[in-house]
Amino acid sequence: MNVVWFLCLSAVLFCIGGAGVLIRRNPLVVLLCLELMLNAGNLALVAFSRMHGNGDGQIFALVVMVVAACEVVVGLGVIVGMYRNRIAEDVDAMSELRG
Amino acid sequence: MILPLADVPAPHIDYKGLSPLIALVGGTVLVLMAALLRGRFVQRSLLPLLTLGTLGAAMGLSIWVWSPGDHRPIVESALEVDALALSLSLVFYVAGIATVLLAHRSAALSDAGAGEYYTLLLSSVTGMVLLAEAANLITLFVGIELLSIPLYVLCASQVRRRASLEAGLKYLVIGSVGSATLLYGLALIYGAAGTTSFAGIDRALGDTVSLSDPLLLTGIALACAGLAFKASVAPFHQWTPDVYQGAPTPVTAFMAVATKAAAFAIFLRLFDSALLSAQFQWAPALAALATITIVVGNVGAIAQDSLKRMLAWSGVAQAGYILAGVVVGTQKGLEATVFYLLVYLLMNVAAFAVVIARERVSEWGDGMRALEGLGRAAPWLAWPMTIAMLALAGFPATAGFIGKFYLIDAAVDGDYAWLGVVIVAGSMISLVYYLRVVAVMWMGPMEVRLPSLPGRPRTAKPVGGWSPEADAWAQPEVTLVAVACAAATMFFGIWPNPLFDLVADVGTSLASLVG
Lengths: 99, 515
Hints:
The complex is a heterodimer. Chain A is an all-alpha fold. Chain A is 77% helix and 0% strand. Chain B has a two-stranded antiparallel ribbon with strand order 1-2. In chain B, strand 1 (71-75) and strand 2 (79-82) form a beta hairpin. Chain A binds chain B through residues 7, 14, 17-18, 21, 27, 30-31, 34, 37-38, 40-41, 44-45, 47-48, 51-52, 54, 56-57, 59-60, 63-64, 67, 70-71, 74-75, 77-79, 81-82, 85, 87, 91, 94, 96-99, and chain B through 137-138, 141-142, 145, 149, 152-153, 156, 159-160, 162-163, 165-170, 172-173, 176-177, 179-181, 183-184, 186-188, 190-191, 194-196, 238-239, 241-243, 245-246.
């Protein structure tokens, strides 16, 4: 099977993730979309690894999985902290800091 | 099953070269374990001392293992030590030490727990050192995440302050978008070049890969955008003022200096060594980014009333100046970039130390008014701030002037003379807000608010002499950091030769630029 299809799928996943981060309001869904973006990168890495016939991409993908897990842990921790302080679970309402 | 595994060739590891990283990781674990001991002495004194000791040991080891002109892998094709890695590691260690001192009386320490706070700080420094020594795409990504993830937590570490949590989440979301974009870019570069090592990519671009390969170009563009998020280069800078203001101020100081240096370390490694053959493809784009950044940062800073926000916008503008050194892709550009990062550390830490000192006692918090009349009330704080502001603006006789001069010289030398003009124009705009701070400190009226009676609030001019609010030595460690950094800024402005010697070594460290 041609590697192009895998790349197309990963590009679509990346765009869906990016659009989700921009559009969705719930921080949990935003985190979910971030995962989608990272995993799109993983898919591309594994596809390229297969194409080039070396293991670099697969090792990279494994490392990225660990990193993605760490990011989610921190993200969930911060969201729990916000719930405890009764801060609205809507990223639009976070406007204490105005840029 | 064991025997076939025994034949796997292990990479060559140079443990002597690795020792600074080992010291950092060991120190991180030690601090985390020591934090289990409750007790005032441990929490207030032992933990900061252990952290300072770790950073000091790592710094000493870095200098010990390094010899001039050195360039060798420490973990085969994953990490390598050279003058670039060493000089930027010094920036990270000094920034870490300054942060420990500045955070000593911070509210975030008791909110988050001293042990956790220092552990996160140390792991972030570890990530930065890893990043500066990276020799392939995987180490690059691990380093950038190891530096970012602890910083997300540190930003949110004042868990009882809304703004801190908000800053943490904003930084997390935007930082992760940056990481994901960077990762996708790195994946495409890997796809085009077929290898993850910087040297391998450099070789592949030389012969097998076409320089107009769309895969490669998309990869470079995405990686550039991802790194621009981390370095707060416009138009990816919008998070900077919010996060800088919301985060606890010592963490802001650390982010402003060390994260920026780390992001530029990787800009240099990726663009000036691995992707140098494609320079004519990326340099115009980076030059455009630098121009936008300089304009946006300087214009944005003018209207700010909060000192932290003002410094954030000024940091955006400074990132634009530093980017000019990366664009030219020459040995001189590399030297100028590293020189500016070293100087930027001193100027910015001095400024943030004064902001921290005032923020803790003044009713105006980090507002511009907190500095009113500081010149008369606390000259030990007013002078460092004045020197820092003048140096950031690039006044002669400060190190900032020499740094900017070096950058402009490198830009003109590398056929980007117009970028030098942009830097000068940007510096002229920046005088508006830097000099405003100086004016507020030395010219503003000094008023003390008296307890208000029913009716209008009363204020009076102080007769003079000592007042507890204005006493600079009530927080000796903060004043010490401010004075030391400001003194170094002046010293290297008048006698920059030690820094010149250091960056001359750095100039020869990227093999692709030499010759």
